[in-house]
Amino acid sequence: MDYFPTANHPLPSVASLQLQFVGKKLVDLPTPAVVLDRAKLRKNCEAMLDVCGKLGVGFRAHVKTHKTLELAKLQVGAGDRPANFIVSTLTEAENLLPFMLECQAGGRESSVLYGVPPAQSTLPRLVHLASKLAPGSVNILIDNIDAFNKMKDALVAGEIGVFIKIDTGYKRAGITTTSQKFPGLIRKVVGTVGDAFRGFYSHYGHSYAGNSEKDSAHGLISELEGLEEAAAEIEDSYLKLLKRKMVLTVGATPTATAAQNMLSGSPRAAEFKTLLNRLKQTYSVELHAGVYPVLDMQQVATHARPASGRAALTKDSVGIKVLLEISSVYDEREKPEALASAGSLALGREPCKSYPGWGIVTGELGNDGNVVYDERGDRTGWIVGRISQEHGLLTWEGAEHNMKPLEIGSKVLVWPNHACVAGAGFGWYLIVDSEKNSHTVVDVWVRWRGW
């Protein structure tokens, strides 16, 4: 059996897509289309790598948001720094394989972590993937002793690394350190795989509900304290089986990007640095995050970083937009509305806590009004106010004397609420570069497909 079924999900020709789109202006393109700003992606990626370097911690890049090789490379940077990844689907790992092999052949550390406790049916593909890479390059998460017992022989034979996933409050996957089953799980995993035990992993997904820099900083500190508590449960006799430092890997985009706040001299930053320095004496500390290169309205709504300065987090930091076309207008309604050429399959269905809509019109193409909706200000401008499967209704919010009517056939760009879901509706990204020309396509990146 071919355990790399990427052939089941053939990708379009990059050369053909480039011939179709490169050099074209956004206003001349068919819609809907999803657009990434390479300059903003690069800036966001460099900021993450920079703060990890200054804090002396590792970084593991999640690729589930974008599913492209081009952005995966930006996430880990160039040179000899480690190229370590997290994936949510095995097809992501299989598509990363050639790049990881290239890294390892050149002496660059590269590994991948399957970021969900694996289903039993994934084992053949995991083992096959591990056989292509250096021993220990493929890692999984475990949070259940029965699941581990069913797969332990394959993990040992395939030299697959194991992290124990800790629930630090998100209540999705993971085991709590207060669980009666937790000590037994540690003994079973470490006693079985020995030095292939990597450490502990937490995903602070509930940080998306935060509303301030303080909330995100609290989440980052809480995660580290939670994993320190987990590591303290390993008995000395089992610690002797480990030949390297255990890894404590923490993050979600709000908490991981909040690390940029920790370079300041604030009391909260001082508390974080004290904790981090203590942990680094015994453990390897690693941050992980995924949506941070592109960001979205959900991330902006967390206010995890200040709205100004070097580490600013605003709508101007968002590197993804969806291109829509106006197909009808309804100026006779209670508030002006316009029908646009994309709905939930292009924008996603998730709401955002900071405003009542599914996207905010950016005002960049010159024909969509000169007021951009400010969710923290006067709340005036065009938003995606209602949504259906294939269509969305743009609604004007606020005083109408500021409104420039939308015209049938005009194009608008929209910041989506959730970049991961918005991108999933498309086979490729159109790439612009705001450092050169933000309205002209300079490249096309193909998204990986399948599970």
Question: What does this protein structure show overall?
Answer:
This protein is of the alpha/beta class and 451 residues long. The protein folds into two domains: 39-294, TIM Barrel (Alpha-Beta Barrel), CATH 3.20.20; 319-446, Lyase, Ornithine Decarboxylase, Chain A, domain 1. It has helices spanning 14-21, 38-55, 69-76, 90-105, 123-132, 145-157, 182-193, 213-231, 236-239, 253-258, 267-280, 297-302, 344-347, 419-424; strands at 33-37, 58-62, 83-87, 110-114, 138-142, 161-165, 197-201, 247-250, 284-289, 320-330, 337-340, 359-361, 381-387, 392-397, 411-416, 428-432, 443-446. Strands 1, 10, 11, 12, 13, 14, 15, 16 and 17 form a nine-stranded mixed sheet that branches. Strands 2-3-4-5-6-7-8-9 form an eight-stranded parallel beta barrel, surrounded by eight helices. The longest helix is centred in the middle third of the chain and has 19 residues, at 213-231. The two termini are 17 Å apart. The model has no long low-confidence stretch (mean pLDDT 92).
TL;DR?
With 451 residues, the chain is of the alpha/beta class. Helix content is 32%, strand content 20%. The chain folds into two domains: 39-294, Alanine racemase (TIM Barrel), CATH 3.20.20; 319-446, D-serine dehydratase-like domain (Lyase, Ornithine Decarboxylase, Chain A, domain 1, Beta Barrel), CATH 2.40.37.
